[in-house]
Design brief:
Blueprint (H helix, E strand, L loop, with lengths): L2 H11 L4 H8 L3 H8 L7 H11 L3 H5 L3 H8 L6 H22 L4 H22 L2 H7 L2 H42 L3
Length: about 180
């Protein structure tokens, strides 16, 4: 919901006129009118003041207003997704160079990162705002997500099944050889 609509609902719930609310926020009545009509958006300082006045969390106040969220985050040089991508690429290049300097093979690196990868995946799954994430997914993003996860999981499933099969065959073979070597 747009912040102007939330502001108007809260103001009316408290039985305040636009002038009364403006006085409480120490701004002009025209500003309140413009916000409620979605003509303009409040500054971050005013959003915090509105949040405090109505005892509404900032998250509840601005989360549904994409235009306000864009305004409040436009000063960021880079969005969170871009930061994740760039940092991951940079760290990966450094770690690749380090693994080459240490003489590690691809299998060694894969074995070393398996557990931290699992822990990070669990952490990521528990820290994502899933409601917001689900709203942001388009059909092409869902299709690419399915393909990406499939390509990521196939080698893991193959390795798990292959490793489990080898362990079972080895155990059965050991049992069989032990059984036949009895007098």
């Amino acid at each position: 919901m747009k912040i102007g609509k939330v502001l108007q609902q809260e103001r009316e719930k408290h039985h305040w006129s636009q002038s009364e609310l403006a006085a409480k926020l120490q701004i002009s009545r025209q500003s309140i009118s413009k916000w409620e009509q979605d003509v303009s958006l409040p500054s971050f300082a005013n959003v915090v003041a509105i949040s405090d006045l109505f005892k509404i969390s900032l998250d509840d106040l601005i989360r549904g207003d994409d235009e306000l969220m864009d305004k409040l985050t436009k000063n960021q040089k880079m969005g969170p997704a871009a930061k994740i991508l760039l940092w991951a690429i940079g760290i990966s290049i450094v770690l690749y160079g380090l693994s080459m300097a240490l003489g590690l093979q691809a299998d060694d690196v894969h074995s070393i990162i398996r557990f931290p990868l699992f822990i990070c995946l669990i952490g990521l799954l528990f820290t994502i705002n899933w409601r917001q994430f689900n709203r942001s997914l388009s059909k092409p993003a869902i299709i690419f997500g399915i393909i990406f996860l499939t390509l990521l999981l196939v080698p893991e499933i193959y390795g798990f099944v292959h490793g489990a099969t080898e362990a079972i065959v080895s155990a059965v073979k050991g049992y069989w050889e032990g059984y036949h070597s009895l007098p």
